[in-house]
Amino acid sequence: MSKKIIAPSLLASDFANLQREIEMVNQSDADWFHLDVMDGVFVPNISFGMPVIQAIAQHAKKPLDTHLMIVDPDRYIKTFGDLGVDHLTVHYEACPHLHRTLQAIKAEGMKAGVAINPHTSVKLLEDTIQDIDIVIVMSVNPGFGGQSFIDNTYQKVADLKQIIKRKNAKTLIEIDGGVNADNAKKLIDHGADVLVAGSFVFKSSNPTQTIKKLKEEIA
Ligand SMILES: O=C(CO)[C@@H](O)[C@H](O)COP(=O)(O)O
Prior knowledge:
By secondary structure, this protein is α/β, with parallel strands linked by helices. It is 34% helix and 19% strand. It has an 8-stranded parallel β-sheet with strand order 1-8-7-6-5-4-3-2.
């Protein structure tokens, strides 16, 4: 069985002590950093952008998994590649020419991801799945941390896993939003490979231990 991945979302971290938070993740059992870029247009919130990611990249010792919640992501693909981002995920709902966008991300040397909102069917990815390295199944409506997990995510993950198998693709399934110790194992059992956790990690009294517990839960 392939290794299961935990990606703490820095959106829930203490921005006033960002370097300390990055070092915590570096030293922890976490596998990736998850970075949420929000533009205030695609989602009703603005988070952080290139200068902050450039600063994070100087300290992070694990892959940067970057989730663009922005309109017209094609405009910035090269910039994120130059910043040293490892995975770049765009939203299905923001890409009229998804196949072209995926090729452009790969041409910059990054893994190409597609995120789908809770209302978007996994069936819409059937024709591009072999070109997608990572699908982020949103288990909350994107834009904010700390929301409650949407229960139909389990079925979406199972359906997506079937599509990946049928098409003989190597795509990883990543879950983002409301992930905690109560739903982590069930998500893995339904076919998830990567779990993003923001509030559950950074709002806990001991984030390092919380990451360790999550890893044990899904091992
Ligand atoms: O993309 C998003 C929110 O839009 C997520 O990455 C959140 O940052 C996850 O936070 P929690 O739900 O785990 O607090």
